Amino acid sequence: MADAGIALDVVGRGREAETPRNSLVARIDRPLKLDAGVELAPFQIAYKTYGTLNADRSNAVLICHALTGDHHVASPNPVTGKPGWWETMVGPGKPIDTERYFIICPNVIGGCMGSTGPASTNPKTGKPWGLDFPVITIRDMVRAQAMLLDELRIDSLFAVAGGSMGGMQVLQWAASFPKRVFSALPIACATRHSAQNIAFHEVGRQAVMADPEWRGGRYFENGTNPRRGLAVARMGAHITYLSDPALHRKFGRKFQDRENPTFSFDADFEVESYLRHQGSSFVERFDANSYLYLTRAMDYFDLAADCNGIVANAFKGASTRFCVVSFTSDWLFPTSESRAIVHALNASGVRVSFAEIVTDKGHDAFLLDEPELFAIVRGFLDGAAKARGLKNGV
Amino acid sequence: MADAGIALDVVGRGREAETPRNSLVARIDRPLKLDAGVELAPFQIAYKTYGTLNADRSNAVLICHALTGDHHVASPNPVTGKPGWWETMVGPGKPIDTERYFIICPNVIGGCMGSTGPASTNPKTGKPWGLDFPVITIRDMVRAQAMLLDELRIDSLFAVAGGSMGGMQVLQWAASFPKRVFSALPIACATRHSAQNIAFHEVGRQAVMADPEWRGGRYFENGTNPRRGLAVARMGAHITYLSDPALHRKFGRKFQDRENPTFSFDADFEVESYLRHQGSSFVERFDANSYLYLTRAMDYFDLAADCNGIVANAFKGASTRFCVVSFTSDWLFPTSESRAIVHALNASGVRVSFAEIVTDKGHDAFLLDEPELFAIVRGFLDGAAKARGLKNGV
Question: pTM of the entire structure?
Fold first, then answer.
């Protein structure tokens, strides 16, 4: 189980967490007040920027990444060597146009690509935090991002955009800092994680923690690596990012490099071989403990819980303009979840447009070549830019 | 991770595989010709019967169990101490009425409850088969059952019934032995396993095989037990047996025995605690290698592949009368799969009725208290009994 060109062992993993390559790093001494009731200080955030901040400092777009994403949104990923994860969306002339907007994409707190997380060094012990790292929430991620923007002296974002866990951050931004968000693009997300989604995450966490190499989260010191457990977790999660029709179209029941079944437990079917590859390549780039922390943050996400059970209260009085997007074949964050967001925004009297895009690509559609998505994002930002009085160039 | 009252270690597991409690056992010397191209001889089948075979030997109903089921269909399970898995359906006065029909339920070949499988002793080595056991198919299971019926001198079954993997066996029975099947009740199944379902199974197998205690399948000799891997496999699979609405209704985002999150990786949410229990209780009653073999058999199932790609050919000229049942919230074997069965039967000119039952209980609905299912099964068997000329009593 190895992916050509990628081989980040736990030592490399720790190094990337501390001194990320091809990244800007903000070291922040002010304490980050966490929902868990503790303070994190100092902490660091790795981030990337693209484009130029205008003189008014009014054209900044914050992009929030998903569970296993990072800040390398529109430039090659130094760990995998692959293109940035949203190069179809972000770049010169792209819907989120780097010739027009100043793009900031931070690695989330709890991540493993340069922002402080469980793979970072605990200053009290000089060793990796491991499970001593405090459990963080989506709101904590957003608080940390707001502190980064303070450092960058950006008071107000022209837009915040993201899909999946990134979409949760978008919603949380609008709820926590309504005055700092001119427009918001939550894609393929929900105001709270469903029981089924919590269940899938729990299976993934149990797969990691069942791996004896996990060592209670102290695999760095032990020189072990819970690769197999994390690979199983990724394989299971990956199924939920696709759709039954997409799997059927791509793989059906086709055998891998053969005509007939082998009557063995080899990867007989193409879909098995594909999944095994997804698992094995993931463990080369991602930290197992980060996977635990970030899935937990998603599970805890529940905007209504902070507002007496009424989501609409989260957006009361907001002047942010929203564009909510869902995909027909997304069964992880189905359209009904996006409709619930729209209903809450309507109930708060907030300006919102909504698009359900017809595709068989499932949840991952937000990362893929979806011309309708590109057109919607471009159109929404164009309209918002006019309203904000942004000029065409920087 | 232990379930009160159940504690079958690997030694007990092996014992149950060889000399199952509260079971009839047929030891068959004739070789079972397997799809893998090898012969299995001798082999044994553990089974249960309920009711009385009539003088004509014409009232026998074969019940085929699902992936993790067994032959204890309508009487207490000697391993778990729990009631039979289909006591709501099978018994005196129940839809499959033991006062009227003679019920036979065998444990499948490859299983671990007394029919020959990977936990049984390989006569050549005197040790458990482990992965030396040949990979078996649904057709092999059915062949073995036909040989059991030969031993019992039952030429023709009044009915064959089963859900999920049991439904696959029902379809295979009608395809392989059309003259021996008067009526067939395939519930919540399909003519072939989908790419998504193969993918879920592969994750489960990888979870088992990633457990170092699995030892390449030789855990019996090593005195180890891949409990954690098998528990993870079961947790993931269990989610697919339910539905998002059912999980939402049962658990929602409710915390387990507390008001607020613990900010930890404990089972904070009720759904997590429930899943962990599903995993831990399963490993006390099921053999890890059997799980590999039976999931594989389901993956290989593809009726069309045996008939030049046309499912209808599988049923050509059959006089069996069918009743096909699906459930609206079953996303593992959705109604579209059952419709495909019905279309194939229609194309073959076979008599078939079809019912889609509205329920939010997901795939597992076939095991649960579903009055509409009971009414349909009772009505279908009544009609078939009249057509067969069965008297009301035995």
Answer: 0.96
